[in-house]
Amino acid sequence: MRPPGLTRSVLVAAGCLALALDPAAAVVRVSGSTTVNPVVVEAAALLTEELGITIRVDTLGGSSGGIAALGDGRADVAMSSRPLRSSDQKKYPDTRFRPLPIGLDALALVVSRDVWEGGIRSLSKNEVRKIYEGELDNWRELGGPDRRIVFFNKEPGRGTWEVFAGWLYGDSESAPLVSLPEVGSNEEARSKVASTRGAISQLSAAWADGETSFALAIRDDEGHLVVPRVENVQSHAYPLSRTLLLITNGRPEGEVRVLLDFLRSRRGQGIVARHGYLSVAAIDQGDGAP
Question: So what's the pLDDT on residue 283?
Fold first, then answer.
């Protein structure tokens, strides 16, 4: 009997897999981005329940950590919220990195409730740069509350930081060294912003809850405000967007292919959308890929 909800392509892959592997012995190791993680964790739970596939997921080191784990042979799939770089291939020349887009995300500058209620609803790129480099250190200077700015910086190497630094400085390698408190996962960043007065951090817009953490609009050179909404990401109007990737070493096979096929299926893309990201179908149809 067909497990409920699984597409024919996934079932065919699973049937081929049963002929080639001992299901009790095979484990799919997935590592990397905390942004991609919730999607993969939900998909993994369903595939474990319905097909008996064992999938282990961790987020040690974020996107760069996942890519390193794949290159070192410690992972079968890397989750990444940043694009592959030439330096990745140079570091792992024997790895045939093969990225598969599973969704699109908006990266936001997120602030605490007191900052939001104090009138800060948008920032320009120049203002963000001055905050990041310490030239601006009180929200009062931007028309907000008289409160010290506390910038929780995503750890360099995290996909979120890479995209943020690339937007702010042209490429992440041009970003200056800064002395700021660092956060790792999206959950940690949101928690720090929610519990700290005057806080700001880089965070996936899907993680901003609108109750304790609030996503700011980006103000362009003409003064227009662009909010991190799906339609603005899809149309390229919002500048801080990124493709969410699953990366394998060469063409995926066996249980790895089952996982990837499922996440590109209609049901898998429903999981992507449920977590607040733009589906691949919307990207393909609307030129949403950056």
Answer: 56
65 contacts 157 by C-beta, under 8 angstroms: yes
Six-digit token string for 35? 């942004």
Tokens for 262, please give them: 């499922």
Q: Which domain holds residue 257?
A: 8-104+244-286
Indicate whether 46 and 153 sit together in one domain: no
Q: How many CA atoms lie within 13 A of 241 on its CB side?
A: 25
- Looking at the fold, whether 182 and 223 belong to one and the same domain comes out as yes
Within the chain, which residues score under 50 in pLDDT?
1-25, 285-290
Burial (Cβ within 10 Å: 0-12, 13-18, ≥19) of residue 274:
exposed
2 in any annotated domain: no
Tokens of 67: 């890519």
pLDDT at 234: 80
The domain boundary, picked from 190, 205, 234, lies at 234
Q: What is the pTM of this model?
A: 0.79
284 burial (CB, 10 Å; 0-12 / 13-18 / 19+) is: exposed
pLDDT score of 235 = 82
CATH number at residue 65: 3.40.190.10
**Is the C-alpha dihedral spanning 115, 151, 184, 109 positive or negative?**
positive
